[in-house]
Amino acid sequence: MNIEKPKKGEQAIIINSLKLFRQQSFHNTSMEDIAKSCGILKGSLYHYFKSKEDLMFRVISFVHLYFKEEVFIHAYNDKISAKQKLKKLCDASELVFFDKKTGKLYGNIGVESALVVPEFNPIIREFFQDFFNAVKHIYKEKYGEKIANELAERSVAEVEGSIMLARIFNDKTYITNTHKRIIARLE
Amino acid sequence: MNIEKPKKGEQAIIINSLKLFRQQSFHNTSMEDIAKSCGILKGSLYHYFKSKEDLMFRVISFVHLYFKEEVFIHAYNDKISAKQKLKKLCDASELVFFDKKTGKLYGNIGVESALVVPEFNPIIREFFQDFFNAVKHIYKEKYGEKIANELAERSVAEVEGSIMLARIFNDKTYITNTHKRIIARLE
Amino acid sequence: MNIEKPKKGEQAIIINSLKLFRQQSFHNTSMEDIAKSCGILKGSLYHYFKSKEDLMFRVISFVHLYFKEEVFIHAYNDKISAKQKLKKLCDASELVFFDKKTGKLYGNIGVESALVVPEFNPIIREFFQDFFNAVKHIYKEKYGEKIANELAERSVAEVEGSIMLARIFNDKTYITNTHKRIIARLE
Amino acid sequence: MNIEKPKKGEQAIIINSLKLFRQQSFHNTSMEDIAKSCGILKGSLYHYFKSKEDLMFRVISFVHLYFKEEVFIHAYNDKISAKQKLKKLCDASELVFFDKKTGKLYGNIGVESALVVPEFNPIIREFFQDFFNAVKHIYKEKYGEKIANELAERSVAEVEGSIMLARIFNDKTYITNTHKRIIARLE
DNA sequence: AATGAATGAGAATTCATTCAT
DNA sequence: AATGAATGAATTCTCATTCAT
């Protein structure tokens, strides 16, 4: 799994890169763009990351870690009901894809990058594995192994599809509607 | 809507480009690659298309037209049952994303490009509108307007999400399972 | 062996590169330098050569071809004596390493590059094989197989060593003295 | 002449650099490579050497000193015969160019660098002067001034040429054969 | 002495596009 | 319609060097 917390100087670069990658995608963001947004020079980036791809790996890992600690974690909070768990998970997730300040909708850079750079496939699979496990864990409170499994798979697909549609139609209700539906499956 | 059938010389280029874009994505396919695969020179491409983006538009339009004529059309075939319609629609769709000869899984280049090149957004919206309309039309045989609407939205999201997962996990059962589920909604 | 004559547009680039590589060595000559000396832009070089290394290969091949046609060839001219052959071979060779106009001494770029870029090793071996064969062919007029072989090996080593010393001491007499000696071996 | 023994901390850097320069050449060895091989940081190198070139100077000086103390010195050992002197000199020299442990053949980094970085010319001339003097000193036991002079020049050229050929053909017999020959000149 | 972050100049390479022929 | 040479701007990456701490 190997998800380390980024060190001090790197952190700033990773966060700035994340912003740019989300706004402009991997291919449309140059190392120069990133350097500029960090207030350093292009060459200095290579002090921390050995290549643009390496940097992207760290960015995806960072997002993964964030999801583990801030989103998926709600699935394992045994003090609340299954429905509350899923609700919290969805709410936390919405915070990521919808920027309340700017009103902008962001995509799942991990997915979008993996579709275009096959090297990112393995790392994004881990993300989905964790996502799937969290959702399944919640459904298992109400359903048996098999149904929970199927519901989780279906929910993950639906959520990802709706993030895509939300981006394309610039309409976040695709996501919120989907979230409502997958929560309703616990009733 | 403005979907024209590509003319003779263009057609070959569009089809070759489609292949390459699906295998390597828009950004990883150069005009040189395309020219080579057509047996012509880079410069000659500009005889037919005024830019790489223009070419991509034509490719997406071509795919859109194909879906209209070969996939979505099944929704409007009044000689068969709703279930049969959806079944045929899904089967035809699977042919596109799964290459039986090579065993390779392809993505929806329209979507994947739109996520990365915002200019492609409007054209890909039209595609989804048609997709959504076809599915909704089928569900309306069994459900009322509102439910059909919701089911269609949900189904489109789920299908797109599962295409993504299928690509990332290189496992086409994500798609076939989803297809089974959305067909089952007619029972 | 695969030594082709360079085509029209390439030829100019190859010859200009040869000049620069000889004056400044492979590593100290940039693609920009080469482009400038050809009156074209850096990027245009890649129309003809897929990399700097590829260009260097063509340059070494060009030199190899030159040596075959203008230097080693004298060894196989059956109308003159062995001594005359070797004399002509040496004279032709001196023309390459000593630029009468500028008074400059050049090295064997093939050798110098091969010592620094291992990829050039195979091609420079071919050069030496031809050099060795030519010299041996001459010595065989006077000596038996074994002696001719040994004399050729020794002569090639001595010539190359003296080219090096000539460069380092900027004194072409190292080369001319060596040439005299290897010719004297035919007396 | 100015050949000082390197001080404590420097010594380690010089020796590590020597290894790298021999394996990868001057241009293909970065200050980072050197620092890493010494277990220190790039910046720290500048504590000892004011530039990469300066470091290379020290490396060449170090090699020069080694040759004086361990190789050329045999020429002046008056307790053994001329032939034994040359034999010892050659044997000691072979130890440098042929690494018995790894089986690798190394070049004369001084020469190879001088061919590519003219600034190293003066220092490498000193090396050759000493080499030449040692060989000449030996030949003078058997020959007069003039012949000894010529034989020494020839021998040095032949040795250097054969080191080159040995490197290019990865065959140390070029060197050993040459050594045999120059020793035989004392018979 | 040593660190490690940053510099800044420059390198090779890519690529969509243009255009005279 | 097609060629093929050339453009020019951008991009990733390298690396010797500096310097505050």
- Percent of residues of chain A in beta strands? under 5%
Q: How would you describe the shape of chain A?
A: elongated
Radius of gyration of chain A: 17 Å
In round numbers, the mean pLDDT of chain A is 93
At the fold tier of CATH, the topology name of chain A is Tetracycline Repressor, domain 2
- CATH architecture label name of chain A: Orthogonal Bundle
**Biggest interface between chains:** A-B, 32 and 32 residues
Order of helices and strands of chain A: HHHHHHHHH
Give the total of domains of chain A: 1
CATH superfamily heading of chain A: Tetracycline Repressor, domain 2
Number of helices of chain A: 9
Instruction: Provide the CATH top-level class of chain A.
Output: Mainly Alpha
- Distance from N terminus to C terminus of chain A (CA atoms, Å) equals 34 Å
- What percent of residues of chain A adopt helix (DSSP H or I)? 55-70%
Uncertain residue segments of chain A: 1-6
- What is the chains' assembly state? homotetramer
Largest sheet of chain A: none
